[in-house]
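Friendly challenge for the regulars: who can give me the C-alpha cells for this chain first? No prize, just bragging rights.
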Amino acid sequence: MKTNIFFCGYSFHTKGYRSVHKEGFPAYLIRLQTEGSCEVVVKGQNLRLEKGDLLFLKPGDQYEILVEEGNKSGDYHIACQGDWIDEWWKRTEKESIYHIDLDGKLLSLWNQVIVAKRRPQTNQNHELIDYLLRSLCLTLEETMDEIVPTYPYPYKVTRMMRYIEEHATTAIKVEDVADHVQLSLSRSVHLFKESVGKTMIEYVQEIRLNTAIERMKYTTMKLEQIAEECGFGSYPYFHKVFKKKYGVPPGVYRRLEA
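First reply, four minutes later:
Bragging rights claimed.
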C-alpha cells in the first residue's frame, strides 16, 4: 500500500500569509502549530490555533489560513494521500483539532520526513519515506489516544510513564519525572501511585528488569555489564532486586531459560 507526500516542511511567517481552499483541500493535511498563532477556517468554523494545536483535514474539507501582518506563526505540516493513509484515517474517528505537548521525539521524526523528502527525486529513498510517514502518523495517533478521556490513565500519568520508559536505564530520579510533567513532587508521586497502582520507583524497576531479562535471554553479555547498562548500577544490587522479584538469582534464571 503506497503513500504519497505532496509536500511537507516547516514554515515560519512574520509578514502575513493567507491560503484559501474553499472548494476543499486536495489531500490529507496534518499541521502542528509550534510558535505564535494563526487564524483558520475549518469546515466553516473559525478557529485560532495556538502553540501545541494539532490540525487534521481530510480531502475535500474546506480550509483557510490567515497569519496577520505583524504576527508570527510557525508550524510543521504535511500533505499526503494513499491507501495506507486512507485506512489509518478511517481506523479511528479524528477531531479537527487536538492540543498536544510539543514532544522532541515527535518533532525529530517530523524533521526526518522533511529531510528525506527534500532530496532530489532521483536520490529519494521512497521506501524509507513511506515508513517514516507511517511512523509519524502512528506516533501522532498514540499522542491523541493519550489525551482523550477514555484512555486508561490521566494524560499527565501517561506522560510520566512514557518518560520513565525512555529513561529507566539511566540514573533517573523521581524529581526528573515530576519536572517533565510540570507537577510538584508530592502531586506527581500521589497521582502516579493512585492511577497505576505502583510507585514510580517500582515502575522504573519493572522496566529495568524487563530490559535485563531480554539481554540475559538474547545476548551473551556478562551479568555485571547487564546490571550496569540496565540502570542498576552494580551487580549486587541487581542480584538483590532480581531475586526478590523472581525468587532466584540472575545466573540461575539465565541457565533455566537457556
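The chain is about 50% helix and 20% strand. The longest helix spans residues 126-147. Your move, everyone else.
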